[in-house]
Structure formats: C-alpha cells, structure tokens
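Annex B.
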Amino acid sequence: MQELYLTYLNGPDVAALALTDAEILAAVEGALAAQGRKQTVIEPRVHLVPESSDKGHFNVLRGFIQPLHVAGVKVVSDYVDNYKHGLPSEMALLNLFDPDNGVPLAVIDATAITDMRTGAVTALGARHLARRNSKVLGHVGARGTSYWNVRLLDSIFDFDEIRVHSRRPESRTAFAERLSRDLGKPVIVTEDWESCVRGADIVVEASRLPRPEPKLLTSWIKPGALVIPYGTMSAVELSLTDIMSKMVVDDWGQCRKGLPYGALRQHVDSGRLNEENLHAELGQIVAGLKPGRERDDETILFWHRGLSTTDIALGHAMLTKARNLGLGQTLRFA
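Ornithine cyclodeaminase: predicted structure tokens.
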C-alpha cells in the first residue's frame, strides 16, 4: 500500500491560525448555504453517556459537504463540572476525510472550532432573523461558545448594551471582563435571568443546567425580539413557542421527535413545534430559498443544536490556512 500522511493541528496550531471574525463567519455561512441547496449530508448526532447525563456525555457529529469535497466526524465531550478541575466543559476532536476513498486528511483539536462555529451560527441566525437595528443583547451563559456568540453578534450589530448572566458570580464577572476588553465597550453583569433578558432585542440562552428547568420566562420576551435558546437541557417555558411569529431551526433532522436533549425537546415532543409550523431551516434562509425576518414586529425563535457541517467547514478553512502558513504536524498514517 502507498504511504499515506495526514495533518495534525493541535490547540496551539489552531490558536496560531488566528482566524478573523470574517473568516469564521464566511466558512460557516458557506456550509449553511450548501445545506440549504441540499449539497450536504448531515447525520443526526448520536450520544455516548458513560455513566449519567448529570456527569457528562459525548456527542458524535457526522457530515459531508459537496462543494468542499470533504467528509468529517467530530467527537465532543460535554462535562458540566469540568471547571472544578480547570478544564473546559467541552473538548473535541475533528477528523476530516476524502469522501472518494476514505483516506484521512486531518485530525484537528476542535475545542475552539466548537466554540467558534456555535457563535457563528448564532450570529448568522441573528443576521437574518433579528431586527436590523437591534441594539440590546441579553446573554445567559458564560461557557466557551458564549464568548463567540457575543463577539460575533457584536461584529454584526455593534450593540449599545450587552448584558450577561451565568450561575456562578465569578464566571459571569470574568466573562464580562474578557468581553469588555476584547470588544472595547462596557458589558453589564446581571444578578438574575430576568434583568439580563427582559426587553432585550436579541436573547441568547446558553445555560448549563443539569436538568430541564424553566428559568427563562416567556413574559420577559419583548415583542419583535429574536430568541436563541440552545442549552443541552431546556431552560425555557413551554409557552415560549406560543408567542412566536416564526420558528427556525438549524436542522430539523436533529430536532424531530424521539431524540434526546435540547432546549426545545419538550416543545417538539408535545407537538408545539412540528414540521408543519416550522418556518424554515437556517440554511434555506441563507441560500435565499425562504425569507428570514420580514417585519419588525415579528417575534422569532431560532433553535440550533449544532451542525456537523459547520464544524467540517471551519476545520477545512483551518486546514487550508495552516497549509498556506506551514503550521501543523504531518503524521504518517500508513
């Protein structure tokens, strides 16, 4: 058999690439557009729970992007108490493959990819679904994906007011300080959920709950707002879907009945969100096949569970840039 080699990009390599906000958004937007044009394969994620969901689990995401001619598999851990050990709650590896022959192309530390692509999907969803003059952001959660949510959202909307909240005072304070330093503007730390989200133009719920609990109340949502909940465990009331003019998801195949976890799991299982009242998948909107926001008075819900294709597209962009810059290690496979 011929000799085969792959590229390994570790965490420091990924950091050295220093992808810009524009590069991140462009890579993820391309993946969404390909999905909308039915040029992708997205397999519903599967879960490995070694002991209990309270402790942590693994998500396995698989996909293929035709325009990039690449397939990939990402395995990401989700351990809510990792902060007690000085570890990220989410750590990941992404494997990229040649779809013609299955040859491995790259192994990439995908911890940062997970954070970046999640923030990019949040921001791109808001670009199409939020009011253009949105100036107040309410963000619950301070994990890794939260930083990129706020950073990439602000790159689009240049908010006048950013409010953040999380369960632990030390985490929300550190989160706000980092954002304020990097964005060059003040960030407000709130003591509770209500003062964070009430009246905000865009509400993002990225909490880390051990079990479902309705902590974000429907009555706090401003008419015309965009609400983006994506916690593993639901933090919203069942009535949230009742006030929505439009409901959008990233991939209905990962949201339908019978699957575990997700911010709107109970809403789907109870029929409050279904294939008939779903407005669109975000990819259809990005590709121009369905409209996004059409009026300022629309109150819109966007639920994203995480797309393998956005991981793969961002990993592909990193691999391309790494090769141009001479970064990474070449490992012999065969």
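The CA atoms of residues 127 and 156 lie 7 Å apart. The first helix runs from residue 11 to 17. Further annotation is deferred to the next reporting cycle.
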